[in-house]
Amino acid sequence: MRGVCFDLDDTLLDHGRLTVAALDALYRLHDEGLILIGATGRPAAWGQVVARQWPVAGVVTENGIIAMIRRGSRVELFDRLDPDERRARSAQVAALVRELRATFPELEPSDDVMGRVADYSFDIAESHTVAEETVRAAAELARERGARVVRSSIQLHVAFDSDDKASGVVRLLAAEHGLDPTAATWQMAFIGDSENDAACFAAFHHSFGVANLAGRPSLLPRYRASAPRSAGFVEITDALLAARRGARPLGH
Fold first, then answer.
1. DSSP state for residue 4 in the 8-state scheme
2. Helix/strand/coil for 223
3. Are residues 229 and 189 in the same domain?
4. What stretches of the chain adopt beta strand conformation (E)?
């Protein structure tokens, strides 16, 4: 195992808060010499702070579209589009958001939208609850307009990029650590909790879910912790480090 990729909300974080135990688990993984990559639907602005302050090599944000990479004392933004292309795509997103908000007035922007570069997110279960039928209808309309729609445990995301968390992580690992896609998906573990982690559950051979895992049954990871959120993250960390040191195999 070369490293660990992990989701933030409801996986590492407890309702948005970083616990002492979760941060300690990150440092224990880092001190073992493992590459740590965050993979989140949160905005690039969050990724910049996480990459600067936590023991990680980088953070894939906005569900795989934008990466924030730590290079020495600097944190740099990586976007596969040039600035002109990104501006044009952002205009598409803005037009779609106007239509969605006009059609579904129940939708409210997430409180982190000002930090986003490529996608837009609606708060559906963080501080504002939206009826399931509204979420589904909004997602269907966005897809009809050609957008990619991603749902996390707390947000509904729309964008006109085809990336997902798995492609974003693999691209970062190739660029910064020289891992080809096969090596990345076999040598990196992934820990998540919801539907926007499905691509990583499918791509990474060692995929883990915390106990509060939500989403369609076809999207399940290979292993599942008995504890939810950060406690589950710590449980998985303990299992990974024990397996790495030969104490016991995974799955026991």
1. E
2. strand
3. yes
4. 3-6, 35-39, 58-61, 66-71, 74-79, 108-109, 120-123, 148-151, 155-159, 188-192, 206-209, 223-224
Q: What is the dihedral of CA 141, 145, 148, 151, to 10 degrees?
A: -10
Please determine, for residue 252, whether its predicted confidence score (pLDDT) is greater than 60. Answer: no
Helical packing angle, 229-244 and 20-31, nearest 10°: 20
Amino acid, single-letter form, for residue 112: D
Task: Determine the structural domain holding residue 151 and report its residue range.
Answer: 83-159
Look at 147-156, 167-176, 195-204, 208-217 and tell me which has the smallest mean pLDDT. Answer: 208-217
Answer with the one of 159, 181, 205 that is the final residue of a domain.
159
Provide the token pair at 22: 């979760």
Model pTM?
A: 0.93
Task: Tell me the DSSP string of 111-123.
Answer: TTGGG-SS-EEEE
- Calpha distance 161→121 (Å, rounded): 14
pLDDT tens for 119-174 read 999 999 999 999 999 999 999 999 999 999 999 889 999 999 999 999 999 999 99
Q: Are residues 230 and 174 in the same domain?
A: yes
pLDDT at 216: 65
Whichever domain contains 92, its CATH number is 3.90.1070.10
Output the six-digit token pair for 60: 């894939």
What's the rounded Cα separation, in Å, for the pair 230 and 70? 24
Sign, CA dihedral 244-249-251-252, equals negative
Share of the chain above pLDDT 90, in %: 90
